[in-house]
Structure formats: structure tokens, C-alpha cells
## 1
Amino acid sequence: MSRQSQAQRAGWAAFFGTAVEWYDFFIFGTASALVLGDLFFPTVDPAAGTLLAFATFGAGYLARPLGGIVFGHLGDRVGRKKSLIITLLMMGVVTVAIGALPTYATIGIAAPVILVVLRLIQGIAVGGEWGGAVLIASEHAGKRSRVAAGAWAQQGAPAGNLLASLAFLLVSGLPDDQFTSWGWRLPFLFSAVLIVIGLVIRSRIEEPPEVLAAIRANHSTRLPLVEVLRTAPTIVLVALCVGAVSASFGTFFKVLGLDFATGEVGIDRQGFLLALTLMSLFQLLFQPFAALAAVRFEPIRVLVVALVASIPLIPVSWLLIQTGSVTLSTIGMIVSLAPICWLFGLLGGFLAEAFPTRIRYTAISLAYQINTLVFVAPLPLVGGALLDASGSVWSVIGLQLAFAVVSLLSTLWIARRTGAGHRAPDTSVDAADPTTPAAVADGPER
């Protein structure tokens, strides 16, 4: 098979598998806002039950760095493919188990305990998934198109979001008693079908050539995590801030926005779910243009323009939600999503260029998963508390704007420090040894 054909197959495998993983991860967030509080935490008042459901939602993010470390180690030591198959299978089994889990009314306190454990396992799976999916796509591509190729995996997030929104949009039309008794389970159980398809696709991909070369030449690192912390701690620390605004965008609107719109504003539940579905559809269709732009221009220029554009547009989305109109809410979320989804589309490939082959899986997984732990996991609780304390949506707007500024400054630093996102072919990977980029070889962390 030609390299181009293998690159395309790897891209599709990264896209579909990641879409399934994110579908599984995001349906939990939607269920948390709509039903899990009442079913698994019924002994507290409804508001507290929703907060506890959000806390369970956040538990998945607590486990994601562990997943990045465990599967990053496996991926850097023996290859990307095995990690990706294990994470996909793990996520599917757990998601189906959540769909079949008895509620508090049936088994008492064991129900929320098991729910939290299953959510933690979900977090481990998705924590190991992301880095491998990005790399299986980008490492099969040529050096000049790596940032753009990483967008294959990033397309999985809006696709998974779209599937999750559609799944709950379909079942939310059921009468309330049917929705709370069995309807909410259907999106979780449907994951079994998607997992089988994903496993078939991923079983047919090959390891990227440079990964095989590094393993055969004994360039793989014995303890990738130790090597990352020894050679590039500052780069990882700043890299985890690059995706602050893009990683949190879905949680801002699919969890906080859904709760705010259907609660305080009074928008119909099904109407706002439709708005979220259209938002995910827009991201799925518009995000690929980021890859085209990154091929036409330097990726770093595309990233900076997108981040600068997002700052004045973020307030627009929340103010339009506050009008109570589903149409205006949809327009507002799409407007602010437009530049941010370009950052998300290029994020994986951009971070991959900042690290060498031998530790790349572990490094980008650690950076991205700690990002979600810091900027996403506490967001439902922090954002909900801000809204309650201030009584104004501007508290949430200010928080999201702060995330955008953090992303912009971090992106500029990583590009300057490592050469990631620049067109020159040898700025991020040393020509003499493809496993040793200038970013690590010449950096003060060395």
C-alpha cells in the first residue's frame, strides 16, 4: 500500500475511532444536565443533585491524565495501534455498562458509587485515546502537512458531539416518565454498535514508519514519562494551556449553557438541544477548512488569527442565549465557535510538532489531558457557582475570555520556543535524527 493510501486510511481510523470515543464521553455530560441527578442522587434537592451529577461528569477528567500516561507509555514503547484498540474497546464496554446500570431506586447507594467508578474508567480510556489518534494520523503524513493531518482526529470531537446531541434529541421527545425510566439509556447502549465498527477500522491500520524505525533502532524510551519530565517540563506546562479555550468550549455550552438556557432563561429543553446539534454540525463542516488554511499558510498564523478573532465573539454567544430565542442562541454559539474550532482542528498536530517521536505520545497526552483537568473538569461546578453567586452571565463570559487569552499567549510561546507550527521542515524535528527535535535537544530543560 502506498504511503498516501496508508495516510488516508490512518486518517479515517483516527476520525471514526475518536468520534466514537467522544460520543461516549459527551453523552454523559448531556445526561448529567438532564437526568442523572434525579436518578442517582435523589436524596438531595434537585439543584444539589444536578451539581453532584456534574461532579461525577468531572470525575472522568480527573482520570484522563492517568490514561494519557498509561497508554502514552504503551504507545511510545510498542506502537500507537495497540493503544488505540485497547482504549476504544475499554470505552465501549464501560459506556454500555452505564446504560444498563440500575439507579438509586433499585440498588441504593451502590448506584452512584458504580457510576463514578465507570466514569473514571471512561476518563482513562479517552485520556489514552486522544494522543494516539492524533499521532496515527499526523505521523503517516509528510512533515509539511503534519499539523493539517492531525485534524483528522480532531474531527472526531464534533462528530461525536453531533452524534451525542442527535441521540438525546431523539429520546428527549419521549414523555418524561419514559425518558427518565428507560429513554436516557438508549444513547449509551447504542455505543455497542459504534464500537464494533471502530474496532474493524482500526485493526486494518499500520504503525507510522518513523515509529517503527524508532522502535527497531531502539530509540524508544524505556520510561517515556520520566524522559518527558526530565527534558521538557516547561514545554509540557505551557502546551497544556494552548487548548484552554478550545477544550472547554463544548463544556461551556453543552453543560453550563444547557443548564443556564433551560433553567434560568427558560428555553425549551428540546429546542436548545437542537441548537447544540446544529452547533456540532457546523463545527463538523467548518473545522476541516482549518486544515486547508494550514496547508496554504503557516499553521501558526492560522492559529493566532483564530484566537484573536475569538475574543470579541465569545460574549455574543451568551448574550444571544440570554434572549431566550432558540434561533438567536444557535447563531450566537456558531459565531463564537467558528474561530475556536479552527484552533481545535489544528491543536493536535501543532502540539505533536513540539516533541520528539520517542516521547511524543506521552508528552502530548500529558499536556492535553492535564489541560482538561485544569480547564474543563471543574468548569461545571465553578461556572455554576459563578452564576449563582453573581446572578449575571457576565461572570461566565469573563471566565471564557480568560481562557482565550491564556490559549493565545501559550500558542505564541510554544511556536517561538519549539518551532511548532512554522513551515520550515527542520524546525521541530532534527534532520539527522528524527527522534530528537531542536526543541528538546537545545532547550534549557535538557
Note: Residues 3-441 form a domain with the Growth Hormone; Chain: A; fold (CATH 1.20.1250.20).
## 2
Amino acid sequence: MFERITEDEERGQVGIGTLIVFIAMVLVAAIAAGVLINTAGFLQTQSEATGEESTQQVTDRLEVIGVVGEETDGGDTPTEALDDFRFTITKAPGSGDIDLSEVYVSAVGPQGSASFTLGSGPVLTDDNDRTQITLDEDGTEDGNLDSAIGDGLTGGQQLEITLTAPSGGSTSVQIRAPDNIEDGDSVFL
């Protein structure tokens, strides 16, 4: 059953063949390990970037502190209506820097919808930074709401404003005009 190898030459050849096979297996294992390590590093980098983007979309958003609506037409329209809206805003807790010039605004009102970017404004860098933006029906301030509110919001009408930060985090505000609006009124909404 088992043969006895008596010649020394044959015994050495078997040992060299085994050594060559062993070295080949070690090389293949080293190459496979290198590929796995590179793939794991790539996946880790990609998952960190995805996690960072997701966090920004949730945390990098604006917070609306208050809204004041004003009747500024002074009787130019048949009924009095709020046509200027001043928003006092800050960045939400945990947010990074937010460049207001890149903030996207969408508005849905009784006349339809409007969307635009603010196009100008400071960069909110500190948690205590506060600023005002004014959206109006004729586009003379930061944004034009004409296609959403026409000549303005009359008593009981609603307007929904969504502010979307450059990273994708958004904040929505519902505004409802009071039932009685007089010439020159300023109303905290």
C-alpha cells in the first residue's frame, strides 16, 4: 500500500513541488486579502459620505422664528390684502453654515404656486444669527409671490411657504390671513 522511497532525489522533488504549491496559495491569499481590504476601504468612505449627506439633509435647515404680513398697497386693490411677508429666520440647531443666496423657496397660495431662489443674503454661521427676508407680490424684495397670491392674501386665505436649504433640508410654514385687514396693517402671523 505505501511505498517506501529509498532514493533521496525523489524525496527532494516532492518537497520542492509542495513548497511551490504552498507559495502559490500564499500569493493568491495575499492578493485576495488586498482586494478585500481595498473594497472595504472604498465602502467605508462611501458610507461615511452618504451618512454625512443624510445628516445634512435632516439638520441643515432653516427655522422660522416669526412672520409678519403687511398690507402695503394702500388701497390700490378693491379689497385690502396682505401683500408683503417678512420672515425672521435662523438656522436650526445642529445645522452647518447656510448660504441664504442658495435657499430655494416654493409657495403655494390661492392663485397657484411660485418657486425661486433668494439669490442674495448673508451666510448664517452662528446659532444666534438671525436675519429677515421679505417675500412680496411684486418681486421688489427677496422673492416674488405674484403667481401664488396675486394681489395679496385676503381674509381667511392661506399660503404655504417651504424654505429648502442648499443641502436639501426643508422647513414649511402655513400662513393664514386674518379675516379683517385694514389699509397699512401689519399682522404677526
Note: Residues 1-59 form one domain.
## 3
Amino acid sequence: MLDLGIEKMALIGVVALIVIGPEKLPRVARTVGTLLGKAQRYVNDVKQEVNRSMELDELRKMKSTVEDAAREVEHSIHSEANAIEKSFKDIESESASSEVTPVFPEYKHPRKNWRLKQGATPQWYKSRNGVRTKALSGAARVARFRPHKIN
């Protein structure tokens, strides 16, 4: 842009003071300042609009690539599903021609007494590792953890 240093700004100020005069100079400076501010806002708005349009174009491109990938995946899933369905129909037609009845396993009772609760962890493991197996009452818990007096 323009290379305006302090010396050039001072020279412009002195020339403006001589040409415009000391009475009108503040009003002209305010007007020039507001016009420059409006110009900067307009330039910033144009830049933002250009950036938005570029981002929108990028998003549209990204959307189209994602949609294409989704269509390809959907097509491959449909083709695989059709192939599997066709293989099931072939197997079904072969089994229908041979008339084989399916054999189901006989029901076997689990031999579990529902009245007895059995824990998953063995009792010997709990006793070896110091796991509590019985619930303590409130008074017993207080007595257990109460510090003892040393005489």
C-alpha cells in the first residue's frame, strides 16, 4: 500500500492546515475519518463474503464426496446382501429336495437348586485374601475400627 511515515503525515497536515484553514480542519478531519472507517468496514464485509462463499464451495464439494462414498457403501452392502440371500435360497432349494428334518437337542435340566445361592468366588479364595463373607452390624463395625487406648 502507501508508505506513509511520520514525516509525510506531518507534511500533509501542514498543507491541509494552510489550504483548508484552522477553522474547518477539525470538521474535515472528522469527515475523512468517518469515510475511511466506512471504507474499511465495506472492505472487511467484502472479504468476509468472499471467504464465506469459498467455504460454502468447499463444503459443497465435501458433501458431494461424502454422498458418493455413502452411495458406494450402500451399493456394496446391497450387492453382498443379494449374494447371501441367493446362497440361502440355493441351500434352501437343496434341502427342500432332500427332505431332511432338523434335529434339535433334548432339554437338559441345569441341576441347580434355586434356594441355594452360590457365589462366583470360592470360599477358600475369600478367606485367603481377607474378603469379608459375613455382614457386620453397625455396633460391631464401630467396635472393630475404634482405636484402642494404650495405658
Note: Residues 6-95 form one domain.
